UniProtKB/TrEMBL annotation:
Annotated ranges, domain SET: 110-361
PANTHER family in the cross-refs: EG:BACR7C10.4 PROTEIN, HISTONE-LYSINE N-METHYLTRANSFERASE SMYD
Gene3D superfamilies listed in its UniProt record: 1.10.220.160, 6.10.140.2220, SET domain
Domain of life, source organism: Eukaryota
GO cellular component: nucleus
A Pfam family this chain is assigned to: SET
Name listed for the protein in its UniProt record: SET domain-containing protein
InterPro entries in the record: H3K4_H4K5_MeTrfase, SET_dom, SET_dom_sf
Length: 401
Protein backbone atom coordinates (compact mmCIF):
# COMPACT_ATOMS: atom_id res chain seq x y z
CA UNK A 1 0.00 0.00 0.00
CA UNK A 2 2.90 2.35 0.68
CA UNK A 3 4.08 1.74 -2.87
CA UNK A 4 0.68 2.65 -4.28
CA UNK A 5 0.64 5.84 -2.23
CA UNK A 6 4.17 6.76 -3.29
CA UNK A 7 3.25 6.35 -6.96
CA UNK A 8 0.05 8.39 -6.57
CA UNK A 9 -2.21 5.41 -7.35
CA UNK A 10 -5.06 6.64 -5.17
CA UNK A 11 -7.77 4.61 -6.95
CA UNK A 12 -5.71 1.42 -6.70
CA UNK A 13 -4.90 2.19 -3.06
CA UNK A 14 -8.62 2.48 -2.32
CA UNK A 15 -9.46 -0.77 -4.10
CA UNK A 16 -6.63 -2.74 -2.49
CA UNK A 17 -7.44 -1.47 1.01
CA UNK A 18 -11.09 -2.45 0.58
CA UNK A 19 -10.03 -5.90 -0.63
CA UNK A 20 -7.79 -6.23 2.42
CA UNK A 21 -10.68 -5.49 4.79
CA UNK A 22 -12.89 -7.99 2.96
CA UNK A 23 -10.27 -10.74 3.18
CA UNK A 24 -9.09 -9.95 6.71
CA UNK A 25 -12.15 -8.56 8.54
CA UNK A 26 -10.57 -8.97 11.99
CA UNK A 27 -7.49 -6.92 11.18
CA UNK A 28 -7.23 -3.70 13.20
CA UNK A 29 -5.18 -1.68 10.68
CA UNK A 30 -6.86 -2.13 7.30
CA UNK A 31 -10.07 -0.19 8.16
CA UNK A 32 -7.98 2.92 8.77
CA UNK A 33 -6.33 2.37 5.38
CA UNK A 34 -9.78 2.46 3.77
CA UNK A 35 -10.59 5.70 5.57
CA UNK A 36 -7.33 7.28 4.43
CA UNK A 37 -7.81 6.03 0.88
CA UNK A 38 -11.38 7.34 0.65
CA UNK A 39 -10.30 10.74 1.93
CA UNK A 40 -7.38 10.93 -0.49
CA UNK A 41 -9.49 9.81 -3.45
CA UNK A 42 -12.20 12.40 -2.69
CA UNK A 43 -9.63 15.16 -2.28
CA UNK A 44 -7.91 14.29 -5.56
CA UNK A 45 -11.24 14.01 -7.35
CA UNK A 46 -12.30 17.46 -6.14
CA UNK A 47 -9.02 19.03 -7.23
CA UNK A 48 -9.27 17.52 -10.71
CA UNK A 49 -12.93 18.48 -11.00
CA UNK A 50 -11.87 22.05 -10.32
CA UNK A 51 -9.54 21.87 -13.33
CA UNK A 52 -12.42 20.57 -15.44
CA UNK A 53 -14.73 23.34 -14.22
CA UNK A 54 -12.09 25.92 -15.11
CA UNK A 55 -11.72 24.29 -18.56
CA UNK A 56 -8.08 23.49 -17.85
CA UNK A 57 -8.72 19.74 -18.24
CA UNK A 58 -11.18 17.59 -20.15
CA UNK A 59 -13.45 15.09 -18.42
CA UNK A 60 -11.64 12.22 -20.15
CA UNK A 61 -8.26 13.53 -19.00
CA UNK A 62 -9.63 13.82 -15.47
CA UNK A 63 -10.74 10.18 -15.52
CA UNK A 64 -7.39 9.01 -16.84
CA UNK A 65 -5.50 11.04 -14.23
CA UNK A 66 -7.77 10.00 -11.35
CA UNK A 67 -7.49 6.28 -12.05
CA UNK A 68 -3.77 6.21 -12.78
CA UNK A 69 -0.68 6.80 -10.72
CA UNK A 70 2.67 7.63 -12.26
CA UNK A 71 6.32 6.63 -12.07
CA UNK A 72 9.59 7.67 -13.64
CA UNK A 73 10.90 4.93 -15.94
CA UNK A 74 14.49 4.15 -15.08
CA UNK A 75 16.88 1.23 -15.10
CA UNK A 76 16.85 -0.66 -11.82
CA UNK A 77 20.21 -0.36 -10.03
CA UNK A 78 20.78 -4.13 -10.02
CA UNK A 79 20.32 -4.50 -13.79
CA UNK A 80 23.48 -5.74 -15.46
CA UNK A 81 24.87 -4.24 -18.66
CA UNK A 82 23.71 -7.17 -20.78
CA UNK A 83 20.05 -6.37 -20.06
CA UNK A 84 20.38 -2.58 -20.03
CA UNK A 85 22.04 -2.15 -23.44
CA UNK A 86 21.98 -4.08 -26.69
CA UNK A 87 24.74 -6.66 -26.82
CA UNK A 88 26.98 -7.17 -29.85
CA UNK A 89 25.13 -10.43 -30.47
CA UNK A 90 21.78 -8.63 -30.59
CA UNK A 91 23.14 -5.98 -32.96
CA UNK A 92 24.55 -8.68 -35.25
CA UNK A 93 21.20 -10.47 -35.28
CA UNK A 94 19.34 -7.26 -36.16
CA UNK A 95 21.86 -6.52 -38.92
CA UNK A 96 21.32 -10.00 -40.36
CA UNK A 97 17.54 -9.50 -40.31
CA UNK A 98 17.88 -6.20 -42.19
CA UNK A 99 20.12 -7.85 -44.78
CA UNK A 100 17.44 -10.52 -45.29
CA UNK A 101 14.53 -8.07 -45.44
CA UNK A 102 15.99 -5.21 -47.48
CA UNK A 103 18.38 -4.59 -50.34
CA UNK A 104 18.69 -0.86 -49.75
CA UNK A 105 19.25 -0.20 -46.04
CA UNK A 106 21.20 -1.45 -43.03
CA UNK A 107 21.38 -0.84 -39.29
CA UNK A 108 24.30 1.42 -38.49
CA UNK A 109 25.57 4.08 -36.12
CA UNK A 110 23.03 6.90 -36.08
CA UNK A 111 23.57 10.63 -36.40
CA UNK A 112 21.39 10.97 -33.28
CA UNK A 113 23.19 11.45 -29.96
CA UNK A 114 21.96 11.06 -26.41
CA UNK A 115 22.26 13.97 -24.00
CA UNK A 116 23.80 12.84 -20.72
CA UNK A 117 23.45 16.36 -19.35
CA UNK A 118 22.31 19.74 -20.68
CA UNK A 119 25.95 20.57 -21.46
CA UNK A 120 27.20 17.19 -22.61
CA UNK A 121 26.32 15.07 -25.60
CA UNK A 122 27.11 11.39 -25.30
CA UNK A 123 29.27 9.46 -27.71
CA UNK A 124 27.30 6.35 -26.84
CA UNK A 125 26.25 4.86 -30.15
CA UNK A 126 22.60 5.14 -31.06
CA UNK A 127 21.56 2.71 -33.76
CA UNK A 128 19.67 3.90 -36.80
CA UNK A 129 18.84 2.82 -40.34
CA UNK A 130 21.00 4.05 -43.23
CA UNK A 131 20.48 3.81 -46.99
CA UNK A 132 22.99 1.61 -48.82
CA UNK A 133 22.15 3.10 -52.24
CA UNK A 134 20.15 5.94 -53.75
CA UNK A 135 16.43 5.35 -53.18
CA UNK A 136 13.60 6.92 -55.17
CA UNK A 137 10.49 8.46 -53.64
CA UNK A 138 7.75 5.87 -52.97
CA UNK A 139 10.23 3.00 -53.32
CA UNK A 140 9.78 0.19 -50.80
CA UNK A 141 12.55 0.11 -48.20
CA UNK A 142 11.61 -3.06 -46.36
CA UNK A 143 8.69 -5.31 -45.43
CA UNK A 144 8.48 -6.11 -41.71
CA UNK A 145 6.09 -8.82 -40.46
CA UNK A 146 5.53 -9.48 -36.75
CA UNK A 147 3.81 -11.93 -34.44
CA UNK A 148 3.92 -9.39 -31.60
CA UNK A 149 0.66 -7.75 -32.68
CA UNK A 150 -2.97 -8.01 -31.60
CA UNK A 151 -6.38 -6.59 -32.54
CA UNK A 152 -9.55 -6.12 -30.54
CA UNK A 153 -11.57 -8.66 -32.54
CA UNK A 154 -12.01 -12.43 -32.80
CA UNK A 155 -12.95 -11.97 -36.45
CA UNK A 156 -9.38 -11.45 -37.60
CA UNK A 157 -6.42 -13.82 -37.73
CA UNK A 158 -4.71 -14.03 -34.31
CA UNK A 159 -1.30 -14.49 -35.93
CA UNK A 160 -1.17 -11.66 -38.49
CA UNK A 161 -4.27 -9.61 -37.53
CA UNK A 162 -5.48 -9.91 -41.13
CA UNK A 163 -8.96 -10.78 -42.43
CA UNK A 164 -9.99 -14.42 -42.76
CA UNK A 165 -9.38 -15.14 -46.44
CA UNK A 166 -9.46 -18.81 -45.49
CA UNK A 167 -10.26 -20.43 -42.18
CA UNK A 168 -7.51 -22.84 -41.24
CA UNK A 169 -7.80 -24.85 -38.03
CA UNK A 170 -5.01 -26.80 -36.36
CA UNK A 171 -5.66 -30.17 -34.76
CA UNK A 172 -4.91 -28.92 -31.24
CA UNK A 173 -7.85 -26.53 -30.84
CA UNK A 174 -10.58 -24.53 -32.58
CA UNK A 175 -8.47 -21.41 -33.13
CA UNK A 176 -8.85 -20.19 -36.71
CA UNK A 177 -6.15 -18.68 -38.92
CA UNK A 178 -6.31 -16.91 -42.26
CA UNK A 179 -3.78 -19.21 -43.93
CA UNK A 180 -1.72 -22.35 -43.42
CA UNK A 181 1.42 -20.22 -43.09
CA UNK A 182 -0.11 -18.23 -40.23
CA UNK A 183 -1.25 -21.40 -38.48
CA UNK A 184 2.26 -22.83 -38.77
CA UNK A 185 3.91 -19.58 -37.65
CA UNK A 186 1.67 -19.57 -34.58
CA UNK A 187 2.50 -23.20 -33.77
CA UNK A 188 6.21 -22.54 -34.17
CA UNK A 189 6.16 -19.53 -31.87
CA UNK A 190 3.54 -18.60 -29.28
CA UNK A 191 0.52 -20.88 -29.72
CA UNK A 192 1.71 -23.98 -27.88
CA UNK A 193 2.26 -21.78 -24.82
CA UNK A 194 -1.32 -20.43 -24.75
CA UNK A 195 -3.24 -23.38 -26.21
CA UNK A 196 -5.75 -24.80 -23.74
CA UNK A 197 -5.11 -22.06 -21.17
CA UNK A 198 -8.01 -20.19 -19.58
CA UNK A 199 -7.35 -16.66 -20.81
CA UNK A 200 -10.93 -15.60 -21.45
CA UNK A 201 -10.62 -12.96 -18.74
CA UNK A 202 -8.62 -10.89 -21.24
CA UNK A 203 -11.50 -10.81 -23.72
CA UNK A 204 -13.56 -8.64 -21.42
CA UNK A 205 -10.81 -6.62 -19.80
CA UNK A 206 -12.21 -3.33 -18.67
CA UNK A 207 -10.30 -0.72 -16.78
CA UNK A 208 -11.01 2.72 -15.42
CA UNK A 209 -7.32 3.48 -15.78
CA UNK A 210 -7.68 4.52 -19.39
CA UNK A 211 -10.22 6.69 -21.13
CA UNK A 212 -10.87 3.74 -23.44
CA UNK A 213 -11.24 0.25 -21.96
CA UNK A 214 -10.38 -1.17 -25.40
CA UNK A 215 -6.88 0.26 -25.00
CA UNK A 216 -6.48 -1.58 -21.71
CA UNK A 217 -7.67 -4.84 -23.26
CA UNK A 218 -5.38 -4.53 -26.27
CA UNK A 219 -2.41 -3.70 -24.06
CA UNK A 220 -3.04 -6.82 -21.96
CA UNK A 221 -3.32 -8.99 -25.06
CA UNK A 222 -0.04 -7.63 -26.43
CA UNK A 223 1.62 -8.36 -23.09
CA UNK A 224 0.27 -11.92 -23.27
CA UNK A 225 1.65 -12.38 -26.77
CA UNK A 226 5.08 -11.07 -25.81
CA UNK A 227 5.20 -13.27 -22.70
CA UNK A 228 4.18 -16.31 -24.76
CA UNK A 229 6.89 -15.59 -27.32
CA UNK A 230 9.35 -15.25 -24.45
CA UNK A 231 8.40 -18.57 -22.87
CA UNK A 232 8.65 -20.30 -26.24
CA UNK A 233 12.21 -19.06 -26.73
CA UNK A 234 13.06 -20.44 -23.28
CA UNK A 235 15.97 -18.07 -22.61
CA UNK A 236 17.37 -17.27 -19.19
CA UNK A 237 15.55 -13.95 -18.98
CA UNK A 238 12.60 -12.55 -20.94
CA UNK A 239 14.66 -9.37 -21.27
CA UNK A 240 17.05 -11.35 -23.49
CA UNK A 241 14.50 -12.62 -26.01
CA UNK A 242 14.97 -11.78 -29.68
CA UNK A 243 12.27 -9.09 -29.55
CA UNK A 244 12.66 -7.47 -26.12
CA UNK A 245 16.48 -7.42 -26.18
CA UNK A 246 16.51 -5.06 -29.16
CA UNK A 247 13.95 -2.62 -27.76
CA UNK A 248 15.02 0.39 -25.73
CA UNK A 249 12.88 2.15 -23.10
CA UNK A 250 12.60 5.91 -22.66
CA UNK A 251 15.06 6.36 -19.80
CA UNK A 252 15.82 10.08 -19.53
CA UNK A 253 17.95 10.51 -16.38
CA UNK A 254 18.43 14.27 -16.78
CA UNK A 255 14.80 15.12 -17.51
CA UNK A 256 12.72 12.08 -16.53
CA UNK A 257 9.17 11.96 -17.83
CA UNK A 258 6.36 10.41 -15.84
CA UNK A 259 4.48 7.47 -17.31
CA UNK A 260 1.14 6.14 -16.14
CA UNK A 261 1.10 3.31 -13.61
CA UNK A 262 -1.98 1.23 -12.91
CA UNK A 263 -1.75 -1.61 -10.41
CA UNK A 264 -4.35 -3.79 -12.09
CA UNK A 265 -3.28 -3.29 -15.70
CA UNK A 266 0.48 -3.43 -15.20
CA UNK A 267 0.94 -5.71 -12.20
CA UNK A 268 -2.14 -7.83 -11.44
CA UNK A 269 -3.07 -8.71 -15.03
CA UNK A 270 0.48 -9.72 -16.10
CA UNK A 271 0.84 -11.86 -12.96
CA UNK A 272 -2.51 -13.49 -13.67
CA UNK A 273 -1.44 -14.15 -17.26
CA UNK A 274 1.78 -15.78 -16.06
CA UNK A 275 -0.11 -17.89 -13.54
CA UNK A 276 -2.34 -19.20 -16.32
CA UNK A 277 0.79 -19.98 -18.33
CA UNK A 278 2.25 -21.96 -15.44
CA UNK A 279 4.70 -19.37 -14.10
CA UNK A 280 4.79 -18.56 -10.38
CA UNK A 281 6.30 -15.07 -10.19
CA UNK A 282 6.98 -15.55 -6.48
CA UNK A 283 9.09 -18.63 -7.19
CA UNK A 284 10.57 -17.69 -10.57
CA UNK A 285 12.65 -14.53 -10.28
CA UNK A 286 13.05 -14.36 -14.07
CA UNK A 287 9.51 -12.97 -14.13
CA UNK A 288 9.70 -10.74 -11.07
CA UNK A 289 7.58 -7.58 -11.09
CA UNK A 290 10.58 -5.39 -11.98
CA UNK A 291 11.10 -7.53 -15.09
CA UNK A 292 7.44 -7.13 -16.05
CA UNK A 293 7.67 -3.37 -15.60
CA UNK A 294 10.85 -3.22 -17.68
CA UNK A 295 9.12 -5.12 -20.49
CA UNK A 296 6.16 -2.76 -20.21
CA UNK A 297 8.43 0.30 -20.55
CA UNK A 298 10.10 -1.14 -23.64
CA UNK A 299 6.78 -1.98 -25.27
CA UNK A 300 5.40 1.47 -24.48
CA UNK A 301 8.38 3.09 -26.18
CA UNK A 302 8.23 0.96 -29.33
CA UNK A 303 4.66 -0.18 -30.03
CA UNK A 304 2.49 1.54 -32.59
CA UNK A 305 -1.22 1.59 -33.25
CA UNK A 306 -2.89 -0.20 -36.12
CA UNK A 307 -6.51 0.08 -37.22
CA UNK A 308 -8.23 -2.24 -39.70
CA UNK A 309 -11.83 -1.54 -40.74
CA UNK A 310 -12.25 0.53 -37.56
CA UNK A 311 -10.92 -2.39 -35.47
CA UNK A 312 -8.21 -1.15 -33.11
CA UNK A 313 -4.96 -2.96 -32.50
CA UNK A 314 -1.32 -2.52 -31.59
CA UNK A 315 1.97 -4.19 -32.36
CA UNK A 316 5.74 -4.09 -32.22
CA UNK A 317 7.45 -4.68 -35.56
CA UNK A 318 11.06 -5.73 -34.91
CA UNK A 319 12.72 -3.81 -37.77
CA UNK A 320 10.40 -0.80 -37.69
CA UNK A 321 11.48 -0.26 -34.08
CA UNK A 322 15.04 0.47 -35.22
CA UNK A 323 14.10 3.66 -37.10
CA UNK A 324 14.73 6.95 -35.31
CA UNK A 325 12.46 9.99 -35.30
CA UNK A 326 12.51 13.20 -37.28
CA UNK A 327 9.77 15.83 -37.52
CA UNK A 328 10.69 15.92 -41.23
CA UNK A 329 10.76 12.17 -41.93
CA UNK A 330 11.95 10.66 -45.19
CA UNK A 331 10.26 7.30 -44.50
CA UNK A 332 6.61 6.40 -43.98
CA UNK A 333 4.82 3.09 -43.54
CA UNK A 334 1.57 1.34 -44.39
CA UNK A 335 -0.25 -1.98 -44.02
CA UNK A 336 -0.43 -3.26 -47.61
CA UNK A 337 -2.29 -6.48 -46.84
CA UNK A 338 -4.55 -5.21 -44.07
CA UNK A 339 -2.52 -7.10 -41.48
CA UNK A 340 0.25 -6.41 -38.98
CA UNK A 341 3.02 -6.55 -41.60
CA UNK A 342 4.47 -3.08 -42.12
CA UNK A 343 5.70 -1.90 -45.51
CA UNK A 344 8.15 0.97 -45.15
CA UNK A 345 8.71 3.26 -48.12
CA UNK A 346 10.59 6.43 -49.06
CA UNK A 347 8.61 9.67 -48.87
CA UNK A 348 11.18 11.45 -51.03
CA UNK A 349 14.42 10.65 -52.81
CA UNK A 350 17.08 9.41 -50.37
CA UNK A 351 20.81 9.47 -51.01
CA UNK A 352 23.22 6.61 -50.39
CA UNK A 353 24.51 6.90 -46.81
CA UNK A 354 21.62 9.10 -45.65
CA UNK A 355 19.91 8.10 -42.41
CA UNK A 356 16.25 7.14 -42.64
CA UNK A 357 13.74 8.61 -40.20
CA UNK A 358 10.08 8.10 -39.42
CA UNK A 359 7.80 10.35 -37.38
CA UNK A 360 6.70 9.04 -33.99
CA UNK A 361 3.82 11.52 -33.77
CA UNK A 362 2.51 12.11 -37.28
CA UNK A 363 2.63 15.33 -39.25
CA UNK A 364 1.01 18.75 -39.29
CA UNK A 365 1.88 19.88 -35.75
CA UNK A 366 3.55 23.07 -34.62
CA UNK A 367 6.89 23.27 -32.83
CA UNK A 368 5.55 23.50 -29.27
CA UNK A 369 3.00 20.71 -29.78
CA UNK A 370 5.69 18.45 -31.24
CA UNK A 371 8.00 19.18 -28.32
CA UNK A 372 5.31 18.21 -25.83
CA UNK A 373 4.40 14.99 -27.61
CA UNK A 374 8.03 13.93 -28.06
CA UNK A 375 9.13 14.66 -24.49
CA UNK A 376 8.28 11.11 -23.26
CA UNK A 377 10.73 9.70 -25.83
CA UNK A 378 13.57 12.19 -25.55
CA UNK A 379 13.30 13.92 -22.18
CA UNK A 380 14.50 17.03 -24.02
CA UNK A 381 13.53 19.14 -27.00
CA UNK A 382 13.71 17.34 -30.32
CA UNK A 383 16.92 18.31 -32.11
CA UNK A 384 16.02 17.28 -35.66
CA UNK A 385 16.82 19.80 -38.39
CA UNK A 386 13.17 20.88 -38.71
CA UNK A 387 12.90 21.72 -35.00
CA UNK A 388 16.26 23.48 -35.00
CA UNK A 389 15.25 25.61 -37.99
CA UNK A 390 11.86 26.51 -36.51
CA UNK A 391 13.49 27.31 -33.17
CA UNK A 392 15.88 29.75 -34.86
CA UNK A 393 13.00 31.29 -36.81
CA UNK A 394 11.01 31.78 -33.59
CA UNK A 395 14.02 33.37 -31.88
CA UNK A 396 14.57 35.69 -34.84
CA UNK A 397 10.90 36.68 -34.86
CA UNK A 398 11.03 37.46 -31.14
CA UNK A 399 14.10 39.64 -31.60
CA UNK A 400 12.44 41.45 -34.52
CA UNK A 401 9.33 42.14 -32.45
Amino acid sequence: MEGLMASNCCADYLEVSKDAVAKFPDDQVFPSEVTNAESWFEQRQNILQGYVDDEEMTTEAMKTTLYNGSVYPTAYPWMTEDVVARSDEVIEKVAFEFASASSNCVVSKSTVRLALSPEEVSEIDVLGVVATRDILAQETVLVDPTLAAVVDSVDRCPACCGPFLDKIENSCCKTLYCSSSCSQNALDSYHTIVCGKDLDFLLGTESKSLSNSTESSIGSKLFLRVLALSLKENVASPLKTSLISRLTPAYNPNNPQLIALNFKDQIITPIRILRELGIDVFANSAYDTWVLHTIYCRLQNNKHGQTFDEICGTGVNPLYSMFNHSCDPNIDWRHDDENSTVTMFAERDIKNGEEMFISYIGKGKGLEERRGKLMPWFGMDCACHKCDEEKLEAMAAAITI
